[in-house]
Design goal:
This is P-II family nitrogen regulator. One of its GO terms (molecular function) is ATP binding. InterPro entries: N-reg_PII, N-reg_PII-like_a/b, N-reg_PII/ATP_PRibTrfase_C. The protein has helices at residues 17-26, 74-85, 113-116; strands spanning 5-13, 33-39, 60-70, 94-99. It has a domain at 1-58 and 88-93 and 112-122. The two termini are 25 Å apart. It has a four-stranded antiparallel β-sheet with strand order 2-3-1-4, with helices on one face. It has 122 residues and is of the alpha+beta class. Helix 1 packs antiparallel against helix 2 (74-85).
Length: 122
C-alpha cells in the first residue's frame, strides 16, 4: 500500500471542465475522471453572497474532476488549477485533497504507484 498517492477532487462550474482538463493534460496528468453534478456552497446557488435574503438553496450545474497522482505532483496541479479557475467571484470552485491507501489496476493486478503509471495496452 502507498501513502505516496493522493486523490485530488476539483469542483468547478460546468463550463470550466474543458479548460481544467486541458490544464491537467499539459501537466502530464495521466488519468482524469469527470462527473456531472449539482451543488451549492455558502451562497446557496446565487452568484453573490446574500446572507439574509437568500434562504432557499438552488443547486447549480457543476463538474467534479477526480485525479489520482503522486504526492510530489500535488502542488503543481493545485497551483495550475487555481490559476485556471480563479475569477475572484463566488463559484470559482473547491479543491479537495486526501491520501489514498492503495490503488489497484484491475486488468494487470498492479498496485500503488504502478497502477496509475502509463503502461502498454497489451
Amino acid at each position: 500500500m502507498s501513502s505516496e498517492l493522493v486523490r485530488i477532487e476539483i469542483i468547478a462550474a460546468q463550463n470550466k471542465s474543458t479548460a481544467v482538463i486541458n490544464c491537467l493534460e499539459k501537466l502530464g496528468v495521466g488519468g482524469i475522471t469527470t462527473f456531472q453534478a449539482l451543488g451549492s456552497g455558502i451562497q446557496k446557488g446565487t452568484f453573490e453572497y446574500e446572507p439574509e435574503e437568500n434562504k432557499e438553496i438552488r443547486l447549480l450545474p457543476k463538474v467534479l474532476l477526480l485525479v489520482i497522482c503522486e504526492k510530489e505532483q500535488v502542488k503543481a496541479i493545485v497551483d495550475a488549477v487555481k490559476v485556471e479557475l480563479y475569477t475572484g467571484h463566488i463559484g470559482d470552485g473547491k479543491i479537495l485533497i486526501s491520501g489514498i491507501d492503495n490503488v489497484i489496476r484491475i486488468r494487470t493486478g498492479e498496485e500503488g504507484k504502478a497502477a496509475i503509471e502509463r503502461s502498454a495496452l497489451s
